[in-house]
Design a protein that fits this description.
single chain, 617 residues, alpha/beta, Rossmann fold, Elongation Factor Tu (Ef-tu), domain 3, 4 domains, eight-stranded antiparallel beta sheet, six-stranded mixed beta sheet, 17 helices
């Protein structure tokens, strides 16, 4: 049975600032709904007496806070999922962390919820974390919000306190979009307005929290009605069977339906539908199925089988909201891995349009996106992906960003729309290609990427090498970091974000020069491995030679021809590589020059010898 047909199932999360009573609220709900066994109740009494946070009363949070670290610190760290039910409805609740450093866990809980309970401590009022969580859940497509003004017992159940908090929140929430907001005053610890109306708050005539959860209508959560089946697995048990397995993310499908496969656009028909219960004539949203097609088609994991008359968009560029989840900031231009369902591609933020101010929902300019910040960005991918907008289909409109070195999830995104520019820009076929240009010059084009600290001797060695190559009839060009900053990159500073963009532009110029058949020498500090790797990926295998000019920092400072180190040490220059900005040395360069022991002429000859050995010259 599909999730749409499984009546009465509501997925919701609790969130808000730390220590607002989220775990206590869920624990008390479980208790009121008779979801605690006799053994569990006995343990609850014992643990509450031994060290619970509620004194002599029951500490209901112990029913939810499962990790020992959480119990010792009195906080929720991980997302705790709980199932419970009432005669009217079934529930899956995600109890999410309140601490700022665990915002990524809260976003995880919000990603598959239909309603959010935002708790506010009545004695403290609205906090920035409550506003941050409100914005995130609204971006996650949650349109049903409960403002649970908790701990009313601490303010003597005063109506004016509740009214002020509710009014302040409704003013803030006007910029969240079209949201259904229900404000409820309660005490999770005492049970007031949780599952029964509070005698102490007779002035409140709205529903209890449980009444609202049992009756709220979230049936419009998925707006796309056309069929979508992201392929998770190609099922080949034998040579006579080829099926495509996955969970239907939208719409319905029946045997004989016309379908289109993305991103290729190939057409076919549904030949059969297999479910865990056997063959079926049709299936709908939420069902795990294996389908077979009437024709042989080239389909793999990550492709999408969709309604032929209403297929999802395909693009390698789109606009999206991105929630950044790493201590190191997001730098536009830096290569990341984007995972959308089973699709995985290289991606980079090409433009950070604005950063959201959680306090008042305003849009602020910014060059980077910091930890727990949310921004609106344009992204470019190295291959087209199949997607829907997040507003229409959460499963096919959401993605995560992964650091390619650590494999750590660093961001989460929600697609707003595909960029039309991707449809209007195409590769123009040319009759004269790189091979023809290189053959005319009698050389194998490549990028010689000299990297090292300021003062390491990069430019001197590259200059000597170019003279040596020209003497042999080579066709060359030398791109020097300082020289390029007088023109192409004159608008860039020396922040990490500007350094990334600096190298991205030079990588693109280098690629064009390689296409022209040239031997391109690039002399840039290029302190970050990720950007050097990006430049390498822009050209073909064998066309990138990384030359690490390894000169100790003390020798670079002794040279200090331009006086830059002296100024950096005095604090007159900020973000100076090797002083207050890091240099990430190459791990496996093609050429490693130990510059402290040899003259520039000897080092240039060393590079030339390697080029000869590789057949480049």
């Amino acid at each position: 049975m599909s999730l749409a047909q499984e009546k009465g199932l509501l997925r919701f999360l609790t969130c808000g600032s730390v220590d607002d009573g989220k775990s206590t609220l869920i624990g008390h709900l479980l208790f009121d709904c008779n979801e605690v066994s006799e053994d569990g109740l006995a343990r609850l009494h014992a643990q509450s007496q031994a060290g619970g946070r509620a004194g002599a009363a029951l500490d209901y949070s112990l029913l939810v806070d499962g990790l020992m670290a959480e119990r010792e610190q009195g906080i929720t760290i991980d997302v705790a999922y709980r199932y419970f039910s009432t005669p009217k409805r079934k529930f899956i609740v995600a109890d999410t962390p309140g601490h700022e450093q665990y915002t990524r866990n809260m976003a995880t809980g919000a990603s598959n919820s239909d309603l959010a309970i935002l708790l506010v401590d009545a004695s403290k009022g609205l906090q920035i974390q409550t506003k941050r969580h409100s914005k995130i859940v609204s971006l996650m497509g949650i349109r049903h919000l409960v403002l649970a003004v908790n701990k009313m017992d601490l303010v003597e159940y005063r109506q004016d306190v509740f009214d002020t908090i509710a009014a302040d929140y409704l003013t803030f929430a006007q910029k969240l979009g079209d949201c259904d907001i229900q404000a409820i005053p309660l005490s999770a610890l005492q049970g007031d307005n949780l599952s029964r109306h509070s005698e102490a708050m007779a002035w409140y005539d709205g529903p209890t929290l449980l009444d609202h959860l049992e009756t709220v209508d979230t049936s419009h959560a998925v707006k796309v009605s056309a069929f979508r089946l992201p392929v998770q697995w190609v099922n080949r048990p034998n040579a006579n069977f080829r099926g495509y397995s996955g969970t239907i993310s939208a719409g319905q499908v029946s045997i004989g339906d016309d379908v289109r496969i993305g991103p290729s656009g190939a057409l076919s028909k549904i030949a059969s539908i297999l479910t865990p219960d056997g063959e079926a004539k049709s299936a709908g949203i939420g069902e795990a199925v294996t389908v077979t097609l009437a024709d042989e088609r080239d389909i793999s994991r990550g492709n999408v089988i969709a309604a032929a008359d209403d297929p999802p968009p395909v693009s390698d560029q789109f606009a999206a909201h991105v929630i950044w989840m790493h201590q190191q900031p997001l730098l536009p231009g830096r290569q990341l891995q984007l995972r959308l369902g089973a699709q995985s591609v290289n991606a980079a933020v090409t433009e950070l349009k604005y950063v959201i101010n959680y306090e008042d929902n305003s849009h602020n300019a910014g060059k980077t996106l910091g930890f727990n910040e949310t921004g609106y960005c344009n992204l470019a991918l190295d291959h087209p992906v199949v997607f829907d907008t997040f507003e229409n289909n959460r499963d096919m409109g959401s993605f995560i960003l992964v650091d390619k070195l650590s494999n750590e999830t660093v961001g989460a995104g929600m697609i707003a729309f595909g960029l039309r520019r991707a449809d209007n820009v195409h590769w123009q076929a040319m009759d004269v290609d790189k091979q023809a240009r290189a053959a005319l010059k009698g050389q194998k084009p490549c990028v010689l990427w000299f990297t090292g600290l300021s003062g390491s001797g990069k430019s001197t060695i590259a200059n000597l090498l170019e003279k040596r190559l020209l003497a042999r009839g080579g066709h060359t060009y030398l791109l020097d970091g300082d020289n390029v900053r007088h023109g192409l990159n004159r608008d860039l500073g020396f922040t990490d974000a500007d350094r990334v963009e600096n190298i991205r532009r030079i990588g693109e110029v280098s690629r064009l020069m390689v296409d022209a058949g040239l031997l391109v020498m690039v002399s840039f500090i290029s302190p970050f491995r990720s950007e050097r790797r990006l430049a390498r990926q822009m050209v073909e295998d064998g066309e990138f030679v990384e030359v690490f000019v390894d000169t100790p920092l003390e020798i670079c400072e002794e040279r200090d021809v331009k006086g830059l180190y002296k100024k950096a040490r005095a604090g007159q220059i900020k973000n100076f590589t090797g002083i207050d900005s890091p240099y990430e040395a190459p791990e496996n360069p093609e050429i490693h020059l130990h510059a402290a022991d040899k003259t520039p002429e000897e080092l240039a000859e060393e590079v030339f010898a390697v080029l000869e050995a590789k057949g480049i010259v």
